[in-house]
């Protein structure tokens, strides 16, 4: 049974979510404050997924997410937010969240989001040094990219960008997140205009129709997303 931590202070929502999630096969633990959540996470390292409300009595879910990521905790996190404003969504993604769902939401949709996120997370853990998406295969150990049985050529920056997108398949990456990750530590970095060029080049090499990409999608107002 998959173990889930729900961080939420709305009692009526807690009751409904707990009932539905347990019916869907999850072992649900509940925390109503940041402090309670921190204690439960510190006590148990076997949570499969975390559901965080944003506004809580003693802080917000974004701050807790940042602390967990800084400590090396990579358990998938979904934010339950009352706001779908661009700034709120970007904050959630920038601080390390994997997905968000806006209140009010359908419980069936939430369960589907949870399962999709867990599938992506498990697939990455199982494959280790191999990233796959259809006919596209990236061998991280050898630094090689294959399209079908053919070796594809990429520059260093293109390769890093491709790996970043595949490792976060299904997740929206803001331009700021991508620019931060592409910094190589040697003083070489990618600016906003150059990123647009790299995105175009990847589409030209990977998409059947670069002007209407099926995989490397632009999410207006946010950034980019790789869809399998």
UniProtKB/TrEMBL annotation:
Keywords: DNA-binding, Phosphoprotein, Plasmid, Transcription, Transcription regulation
Regions recorded as binding DNA: 128-228
Residues annotated as domain OmpR/PhoB-type: 128-228
CDD domains membership: trans_reg_C
GO molecular function, one term: phosphorelay response regulator activity
Alphabetical GO biological process terms: regulation of DNA-templated transcription
GO CC field: cytosol; protein-DNA complex
Domain Response regulatory: 3-118
Gene3D superfamilies, sorted: 3.40.50.2300, 6.10.250.690, Winged helix-like DNA-binding domain superfamily/Winged helix DNA-binding domain (1.10.10.10)
Pfam families hit by this protein: Response_reg, Trans_reg_C
Modified residues (4-aspartylphosphate): 53
Top-rank lineage group of the source organism: Bacteria
Reported function: May play the central regulatory role in sporulation. It may be an element of the effector pathway responsible for the activation of sporulation genes in response to nutritional stress. Spo0A may act in concert with spo0H (a sigma factor) to control the expression of some genes that are critical to the sporulation process.
PANTHER family assigned: ALKALINE PHOSPHATASE SYNTHESIS TRANSCRIPTIONAL REGULATORY PROTEIN PHOP, REGULATOR OF RPOS
Protein name from the UniProt record: Stage 0 sporulation protein A homolog
Organism annotation: Sporofaciens musculi
